[in-house]
Write a structure and sequence with these properties.
Oligomer: heterodimer
Order of helices and strands of chain B: HHHHHHHHHHHHH
CATH topology of chain B: MetI-like fold
Strand content of chain A: 15-25%
Largest sheet of chain A: 8 strands, mixed
Number of domains of chain B: 1
Structural class of chain B: mainly alpha
Radius of gyration of chain B: 24 Å
Number of strands of chain A: 12
Distance between the termini of chain B: 48 Å
Number of strands of chain B: 0
Strand content of chain B: under 5%
CATH architecture of chain B: Orthogonal Bundle
Order of helices and strands of chain A: HEEEHEEHEHHHEHEHEEHHHEE
């Protein structure tokens, strides 16, 4: 990929008020820090006069940080709150409690124009490329909308920029006047990527960007995301349920279960030395592309269903299904702590 | 990559068909809808050119010609006062079409504003707004419209009106009694549209592209006008077109029972009412207006069906 995206549009506000250059900080600078994030959706009953009848604890005390330029993989089964974490970080949902620090500034306390301004620096790529593009807008106006909203450049500059973005995602710039229904899933996903890139963000939440795509197309999108990361020094929160993909793209991986993170560590460490029984069960379910090894693979089969996030169990969230559960697991919640070399885990066994 | 890109770049730049253009194209392939559309265009032209085309005025009476059968003097015959039925039928298009257009427009505008607001803001706002709609939905439309018309007619007879009501009465008289019909029909017919608009809004506002717009920083106004309205407009317009025959029939019904336009304004409803009194001896009096009413209602029905099929292929044939 040789096309270079010059950051040609004038930026009225300096990008690094603190003077932390993108390269100066290197890989160690923390871009996003999430502290004890909670997103509870209220359950209401009654007509007009609404009574509060409990909460769905979609995200219940998540803490993590993401370094600049790195990819944090977030895995977990359906309904565990992965997507909600992503949307809450971007303030698409306003969290019930907790902090989201973007370069040290708390996004949860921002409102109105200030938050809108911050939106330029963080974007999102969606799971379903058929639902994430407005069917009544042309590709040009879809990709150009962020530029228009933030008043970047004039009409002509915007048009050029849109064509440039199409080229960056390896699509024909002549497609600007077409409508989303004229494209395949993979092409639509590229349009979604181009839209996210339009405002030159630092941070992108990739919400299962490939799970709705054909296997052959998945690899293309993954490679595109990796190339773009390299080129524009992007930071990703990569949400997925496919462990092999996460292993491929992530620097570090967080495992979520029922609104909480059970384990978070470097990719290789996680796959080599999983400490939480849930992580072990998840990894044991990944097929190994070698028939001899695959035959010997022993699956840890979890019994039962995920409890309802409206009534999470007392103690450890995983205690109802854990194969090595102890008495204390059902009484007290294990602390999410660093057990050495950045390997964070929440489990009484450790 | 260079080769591939050059190959793609070499594709001819073609003019793209928008979703609206696509729907129109689908519509032109539906023969019944096209014929209905042409009939409606002819009706509109007749209504506009009524003064030029019709052989007589709609109010000229020649008592010696009363109930004259169709012939060279009167193509469709004459009515009880010796007025030309063909001319009155042509002028009657104006009444029916203006009711159709006004009632549909008013209902569409109020319904979309109401439904979109209710659906977009949701929560308690939605609850309150929809309970009002539920309440109005429970009222029998025809009875409410009749009561309103009775009230308006009584209002018109009272001379002591002042201010706004005097102004309305004057405007209504100038329009031959049409204004109050618009108000009476429009008063209740937006509620169905409000429900449809709300339902559509609810389904579209949860779509990822709305989430994407919010992530980019688009405000509520931009989301409503750029992302929601264009998407809900199609289904709403289609639904409204399907309501038009109902409005035309309702006006004809009101005029038929004497609560519609003021004579001598020619409404097909009044003409049918006059014709039906003499149906045994002079059936021709009924023929013109009845045929016109039937054809118009059918044309709007078929056009509405065609539009629905064009906009929503899933609904085709249902």
């Amino acid at each position: 990929m040789v096309v270079s995206l010059s950051l040609s549009l004038q930026d009225p506000v300096p990008r690094d008020p603190a003077g932390k250059g993108q390269d100066a900080g290197g890989k160690d600078e923390i871009l996003i820090e999430v502290k004890d994030l909670k997103m509870w959706f209220p359950i209401t009953r009654g007509i007009i006069i609404q009574r509060h009848g409990g909460d769905i604890k979609a995200v219940d005390g998540v803490s993590l940080f993401i370094r600049r330029g790195e990819t944090l993989g977030l895995v977990g089964e359906s309904g565990c709150g992965k997507t909600t974490v992503g949307r809450t970080i971007l303030q698409l949902y306003r969290p019930t409690a907790g902090e989201v620090l973007f370069e040290g500034e708390d996004l949860t306390k921002m409102k109105g124009e200030r938050l809108r301004h911050m939106r330029r620096r963080m974007q999102m790529i969606f799971q379903d490329p058929y639902a994430s593009l407005n069917p009544r807008m042309t590709v040009g106006s879809i990709i150009g909308e962020p530029l228009e909203v933030h008043k970047l450049g004039g009409r002509k500059e915007r048009k050029e920029r849109v064509q440039e973005l199409l080229r960056v995602v390896k699509m024909n710039p002549y497609f600007v006047n077409r409508y989303p229904h004229e494209f395949s899933g993979g092409q639509r996903q590229r349009i979604g990527v181009a839209r996210a890139l339009a405002v030159n963000p630092d941070f992108i939440v990739c919400d299962e960007p490939i799970s709705a795509l054909d296997v052959s197309i998945q690899a293309q999108i993954i490679n595109l995301l990796e190339e773009l990361q390299e080129e524009f020094n992007l930071t990703y929160l990569f949400i997925a349920h496919d462990l092999s993909v996460v292993r491929h793209i992530s620097d570090r991986v967080a495992v979520m279960y029922l609104g909480k993170i059970l384990e978070l560590t470097d990719r290789d460490e996680l796959y080599r030395n999983p400490l939480n029984p849930y992580t072990q069960a998840l990894l044991s379910a990944v097929p190994i592309p070698d028939p001899l090894v695959e035959e010997k693979r022993e699956r840890i089969i979890l019994i039962g269903d995920v409890p309802s996030p409206a009534h999470p169990p007392v103690g450890c969230n995983f205690s109802t299904r854990c194969p090595v559960v102890m008495e204390i697991c059902k009484e007290k919640e294990p602390e999410f702590k660093d057990v050495g070399r950045g390997h964070w885990v929440a489990c009484w066994r450790v | 990559m260079a080769v591939a890109e050059r190959a793609v770049a070499a594709l001819p730049v073609r003019r793209e068909r928008s979703p609206w253009g696509d729907a129109f194209y689908q519509l032109t392939r539906n023969r019944v809808a096209v014929v209905s559309g042409i009939l409606i265009i002819v009706l509109v032209l007749l209504a506009l050119l009524a003064d030029v085309i019709s052989p007589y005025t709609y109010y000229e009476t020649r008592v010696i010609d009363n109930y004259m059968r169709p012939g060279s003097k009167y193509l469709l015959g004459a009515d009880t006062l010796g007025r030309d039925i063909l001319s009155r039928t042509i002028y009657g298009i104006r009444v029916s079409l203006s009711v159709a257009v006004m009632a549909a427009t008013v209902s569409l505008i109020i319904g979309i504003i109401y439904g979109l607001t209710s659906g977009y803001f949701g929560g308690r706002v939605d609850e309150v707004m929809m309970r009002l709609v539920d309440f109005l939905y429970g009222l029998p439309v025809i009875i409410v419209v009749i009561l309103l018309q009775v009230y308006f007619k009584a209002l018109g007879r009272r001379a002591a009106a002042t201010g706004l009501s005097a102004l309305l009465i004057k405007a209504d008289l100038a329009m031959g009694g049409l204004l109050f019909i618009f108000i009476a029909i429009g008063a209740l017919n937006w509620i169905g549209m409000a429900r449809i608009a709300r339902g559509q809004t609810l389904s579209y506002k949860e779509k990822d592209f709305v989430m994407a717009a919010r992530a980019v920083g688009v405000g509520p106004i931009g989301i409503i006008f750029r992302h929601l309205l264009p998407n809900i407009l199609g289904p709403c317009v289609v639904q409204e077109t399907l309501q038009i025959p109902g409005y035309i029939l309702l006006e004809a019904f009101l005029s038929f029972i004497g609560l519609g336009v003021n004579p001598p304004t020619p409404s097909w409803g009044i003409m049918i009412q006059e014709g039906y009194q003499a149906i045994r001896s002079y059936p021709h009096v009924l023929l013109g207006p009845a045929l016109a009413l039937t054809l118009t209602v059918l044309a709007f029905n078929f056009l509405g069906d065609g539009l629905r099929d064009a906009f929503d292929p899933v609904m085709r044939g249902t």
